Amino acid sequence: MEMLIDFPGGARVDAHFGPFTVKTDQPPAATAPTPFATFLASIGTCAGIYVLGFCQQRGLPTEGIRIIQRMHSNPFTGMVEKIDLEIQVPPTFPEKYRPSLIRSAELCAVKKHFENPPKIDVTAREVATA
Description:
Largest sheet: 3 strands, antiparallel
Radius of gyration: 19 Å
Order of helices and strands: EEEHEEHH
Low-confidence stretches: none
Distance between the termini: 25 Å
Strand order of the largest sheet: 1-2-3
Structural class: alpha+beta
Helix content: 25-40%
CATH superfamily of the domain at 33-115: K homology (KH) domain
Number of helices: 3
């Protein structure tokens, strides 16, 4: 997969891939989430895809199910050190499925990449402008 990252103006930076564009921006005049907020949101939304699939495969309703994501940062470095995902289910959700629901969320590809992060190489090269 390849993404094109461009700079549409101000502090905005967008990522384009396939038919999609992910817009990001920086405060104080942000018109979109920051890149880091988008990165963090990918964790909970990825887990959510797996929770949704788990429920759909079993014919379980998803009304009342939500995931609360909490980030815990080191006060000295500002780096996120821990992320909690709490799957909230309504009282009608079958108790017998709760452990499996948690295991399904743990299959999230974003979480797995955190556990075994890819190497990132940054290079620069000159290209002719049109």
